Amino acid sequence: METPLVILYTYGIGGDLDLLPRLYTFLRTLRAEHTSRVLLLDAGDSCDPDVWHCDVTGGRSTLIVLDAMGYDAANVEGILDDESRAKLVEQVRVELVDAAHIWRDEDLLVTNTASDEASALQIVLSVGETTRFDNGTLYLKQIAKGQVGIVHWDAALITSDVLAMPPDTQSDGTIAGAVDFVVGEARYYARKRQPKNGAISE
Known about the structure:
single chain, alpha/beta, 6-stranded mixed beta sheet, globular
């Protein structure tokens, strides 16, 4: 596994698709600041079932855009049921991590909860109160929507910070287009679910 490693992560997007074109611009800026390997993760709560497009797509809508943004892995525990996961897993590159599915990349292990499997570094995507490194396992601090957590890992040494996306961050056109596509598909699913003359509530 390459060292040093920079980990960028998000949490709590909650189906806010309008955030993602600006968030991508911010993430791209942060990536450009590092010459070492950068890992991009989502630590969970990417879709909220009370948000219409999350409801009609079974939690897949935000994850499709995260895939377009180049995320390496996302915690989908409590977001995707088995049916939705099966529909999505063949369509995206982003690794879908939950209690039953881990992602291993050589000596790197990304899990939903701490595992006994051997690895040079294990990253647990269930967020907690602090970012800490304990016996080969990295635990991530919970952050707010619009923030990006950053962890610099080099063997047993880590530094971490939480960065807020600047309010004047510009929207990325490619990701805005991906959002438009996903919303269009979600509307199609919603129409199929609606009785004739029914309205889609957004």
